[in-house]
Design brief:
It is built from 14 helices and 15 strands. The protein is of the alpha+beta class and 487 residues long. Among the domains are: 70 residues, no CATH class; 237 residues, 2-Layer Sandwich (Chloramphenicol Acetyltransferase). The two termini are 37 Å apart.
Length: 487
């Protein structure tokens, strides 16, 4: 790389490498890989017309901090919400979710790799690997090169976490899309979005975009706080009864279960203002409005009529207990409507609004937390090899069978103006469950609300009904996705 450089540039590069070596004390293999990553990024920037001194400034080794120079000695117990995830895993099934940003230009893999290298130090809780203790799984620090991957498969494929050092997240790229997939043991949508936004901001900074860390943006060179790393469930109110987990089996959508999970990912891109106006016309929130359309689509996509449909809604506990934790801090509730009462009228959305107000309250969510604590406490001293088969049975037969589908709404996501101008859209994909034929997830960026429907059956009844219902309310829907998400 030094061929053809001026004496000034050669001296600058030599000084850079000396500083780099002070910051990286990994294994010989990881050190070589990180050095190659750095060289590739420098070459890429130079080929884009960036002077060497400017390229070295953007890739300053000081951005590595002390993360790669210190040994991995920290471990983290799982939060109460995360403890069930590794226990309930079956072959080919994991609780995963994906967050994505589509840029206005194709992704440069060499710059994205460096962005991840600089970002991960700010999220030490993510730089971990799942390990088995005698009573519980736990997260152990892992100091290594965390690599990006080209996207080649359907979203949310199971991760190999049994191999030593394997991370619980993956960073993928495809054309102009940057995606991060998380095993739910690690974080929830709020923590995952914080990581993605930081990664994207660092990528754009290295690309030459002026970056500011205003609002909820995180400075990748800042110091992680105790609050960000904390398990917040023990800090919630401990009064009231324990309830929320027991329930009868809900009606399921029709269609043969596919062996491919998901077998199809469909995205409805909607005008955010039209969606907002449609909800306003029903005097409802966007979540309540979308729930009414999902219930109607469920009813039309199922041959069963004797029973009820139940849609699971994650509830962010941070709205009751303000916190910056990057770990799981969400509970859920179920909105339940009998099949015979699902009709396209005001009574349906009125019932949804009533249930939403009651079931997503602080009191009800605290009862759910109490139930979680009771379950965890009841098996606290049961050895892990006994816990796992029991948890697998409970999850397989009582878990998602209690629900018909899920609607997870991350709300409106914002970036500082300087960064937002380089972003085209965002999307949010949930991994599939065991028997639920569809899961739904919604996120809004700019004037586009993107609803992702992750299918476990090729039967198109659900999405076709939902499309027609939204169009009927004057919402223009642009449909993307297919059996192969990347196409």
């Amino acid at each position: 790389m030094q061929k053809g450089l001026s004496e000034t540039d050669r001296s600058a590069l030599d000084a850079y490498l000396v500083n780099y070596k002070r910051h990286v004390l990994l294994s010989r293999q990881d050190n070589a890989l990180l050095l190659t990553d750095t060289e590739n990024a420098i070459v890429s920037l130079i080929e884009k017309g960036v002077p060497l001194t400017e390229a070295l400034s953007r890739l300053d080794a000081d951005n590595l901090g002390g993360f790669y120079a210190r040994p991995a000695i920290v471990w983290y117990p799982l939060d109460d919400a995360a403890k069930i995830y590794p226990l309930s895993m079956k072959h080919g099934q994991m609780a995963l979710f994906r967050l994505s940003v589509c840029l206005k230009e194709d992704v440069d893999p060499s710059l994205l790799q460096m962005a991840l290298t600089f970002t991960i130090k700010r999220f030490p809780f993510f730089a971990t690997t799942v390990k088995k203790g005698f009573f519980w799984h736990y997260l152990d620090s892992s100091k290594r090169r965390f690599n990006i991957e080209p996207e080649q498969c359907l979203p949310c494929q199971p991760m190999t976490i049994s191999r030593s050092g394997s991370p619980s997240f993956r960073v993928l790229f495809y054309k102009n899309r940057i995606s991060v997939e998380f095993f739910h043991i690690l974080t929830d949508g709020t923590g995952g979005m914080a990581f993605l936004k930081t990664l994207v901001s660092e990528y754009l900074r290295i690309s030459g975009v002026s970056c500011s860390y205003e609002g909820d943006m995180i400075d990748p060179n800042g110091t992680p706080t105790e609050d960000e790393l904390s398990n917040q469930f023990p800090k919630t109110e401990h009064k009231g009864k324990a309830s929320g987990f027991m329930g009868k089996a809900a009606l399921q959508l029709g269609g043969r279960l596919s062996r491919t999970r998901p077998c199809r990912v469909i995205q409805f891109q909607m005008d955010a203002e039209q969606l907002k106006e449609a909800a306003k016309a029903h005097q409802a929130t966007i979540t309540s409005y979308m729930l009414s359309k999902l219930f109607l689509a469920c009813r039309q996509a199922s041959d069963e009529t004797d029973g009820f449909f139940n849609i699971q809604i994650p509830v962010n506990m941070r709205k009751f207990y303000p916190s910056r934790t990057m770990r799981n801090f969400a509970m859920y509730c179920g909105i339940q409507i009998s099949a015979e009462k699902i009709d396209d009228n005001a009574d349906l959305i009125g019932e949804i609004k009533t249930q939403m107000e009651a079931k997503t309250s602080k009191e009800k969510m605290s009862e759910m937390v109490r139930s979680t604590e009771h379950i965890v406490s009841g098996v606290r001293y049961v050895p892990l090899f006994i816990k796992k088969p029991i948890a697998g049975i409970i999850y397989g037969f009582l878990g998602d069978k209690a629900f018909t589908t899920t609607l997870s709404n991350l709300g409106v996501i914002t970036f500082p103006d300087a960064l937002a101008g380089h972003i085209q859209s965002m999307d949010f994909v949930l991994g599939t469950a065991v028997v639920n034929r569809a899961n739904c997830s919604l996120v809004t960026f700019g004037n586009t609300s993107t609803l992702s429907i992750e299918k476990l059956t090729a039967d198109p009844s659900f999405e076709e009904s939902l499309y027609a219902l939204l169009e009927k309310d004057g919402i223009t829907v642009h449909v993307e996705g297919s059996e192969l998400y990347a196409n």
